[in-house]
């Protein structure tokens, strides 16, 4: 498709400009060279499907702690899942939004804003993810 568009563009440009005989060879070569790559190879995609990986509670807790540990404002290296995100860990409202976005990316699903606003501790996030992903162990 790109080759066709380029070819049409160059052909239109070639027709609209009167050139000396030495310059017209360049445009002819450019138009011919657009057909070097076969068009069918440009749009090939590989799609792989697999079953969803089941999570354990320990994995969910570890991933939440990993995400929280990456925040510069979280001063504690060892924090509890019951610590308050704002009072104990030092996050503000903008950090809270960034945390939710990072959690969404980490676990691969969107958290509705109304529910995300209710997260006050890492345990709240943990409980939501366990319920959403059907984690029992």
Automatic annotation (TrEMBL):
Which species? Parastrongyloides trichosuri (Possum-specific nematode worm)
**What protein is this chain from?**
Acyl carrier protein
Q: Which SUPFAM superfamilies match?
A: ACP-like (SSF47336)
- Location in the cell: Mitochondrion
* Transmembrane intervals: none
Q: Which family does it belong to?
A: Belongs to the acyl carrier protein (ACP) family.
Q: Which Pfam families match?
A: PP-binding
Q: Which UniProt keywords apply?
A: Electron transport, Fatty acid biosynthesis, Fatty acid metabolism, Lipid biosynthesis, Lipid metabolism, Mitochondrion, Phosphopantetheine, Phosphoprotein, Transit peptide, Transport
**What Gene Ontology terms describe where this protein resides (cellular component)?**
mitochondrion
Domain Carrier: start-end pairs: 54-133
């Amino acid at each position: 498709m790109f080759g066709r568009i380029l070819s049409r563009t160059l052909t239109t440009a070639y027709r609209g400009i009167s050139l000396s005989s030495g310059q017209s060879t360049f445009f002819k070569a450019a138009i011919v060279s657009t057909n070097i790559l076969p068009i069918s190879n440009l749009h090939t995609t590989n799609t792989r499907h697999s079953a969803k990986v089941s999570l354990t509670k320990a994995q969910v807790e570890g991933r939440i702690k990993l995400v929280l540990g990456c925040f510069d404002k979280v001063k504690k290296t060892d924090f509890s899942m019951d610590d308050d995100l704002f009072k104990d860990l030092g996050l503000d409202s903008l950090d809270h939004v960034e945390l939710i976005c990072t959690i969404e990316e980490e676990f691969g699903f969107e958290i509705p804003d109304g529910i995300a606003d209710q997260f006050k501790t890492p345990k709240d996030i943990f409980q939501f993810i366990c319920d959403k992903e059907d984690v029992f162990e």
